[in-house]
Amino acid sequence: MFTRFWLVSVLYSTWWFLDRDTPSRGGRRCRFFQRLAIWRHLRDYFPVTLVKTADLDPRQNHVFGFHPHGILVAGGFVNFCTEATGFQLLFPGLTPRLLMLPLWFRVPFFRDYIMTGGLIPSDKDSAAYLLRQEGGGNAVVIAVGGAPEALDARPGAFTVLIKNRKGFVKLAMEHGAPLVPVFSFGENELFDQVDNPKGTWLRWIQERMQKVMGIALPLFHARGVFQYSFGLIPYRKPIFTVVGKPLRVERNEKPSAEEVDAMHEKYLEELCKLFEEHKAKYGVPEDKHLSFV
Length: 293
Prior knowledge:
With about 290 residues, the protein is of the alpha/beta class. The protein has eleven helices and eleven strands. Strands 1-10-7-2-5-3-4 form a seven-stranded mixed beta sheet, sandwiched between helices. A two-stranded parallel sheet has the order 6-11. Strands 8-9 form a two-stranded antiparallel sheet.
């Protein structure tokens, strides 16, 4: 603050204080930002395609479970934080908001940037605020596997971290919001990752850092700008993000553990069904299946 730009620091600090609750109150989406031409170029780079399998009622709020996380959640960002793939045309009346680690909303200026894309903190209060809104029309998009799942993101991997992740199911039950499974084919094909099987020193360090810092640090690599052998630019691999059929959820403000488990099991069945029905279209071998951990 004590520099010749002190006035900027003071003004922004004041703005940050006054605006501190905005991320957890639906954020601040900007249609102009979401329609920028750069996002269409990003879409075409991979390319990214959003696939609709069923209509979603805009009079209801929904909980989208996004799988897999991948390294950068590229499909999630392009499809749900920009209008490059036509979400509003495919699902009129619905407004998606992708959840992101709360720590990023503490970074000056960056917090304002990510909010323009409709990103909100990945905590219960932020999601619940949107699901409580009367009239529906909100789609809360949760990368269920989160940062830890990124440690298993590599080409050919179909490992989904979800067995003990039931908070999103309970959240949907508490608000009576339909659960919508989403599988992003190609998400794990964008980067190679240094081998880090469980039990190795590298995986131990990564998991420890994830617990301390809240973010995963996978050692990934892909291509460069002018060569294809090494770099940090993702490979040009197609991403097909398939939005499944909504799973009806009855409102239950205080669901029991057994009721959450039962709904969680139904969700896993629907996710498996979605994957099996579409995998052949998007180049997944017949003998490949989802692995839940």
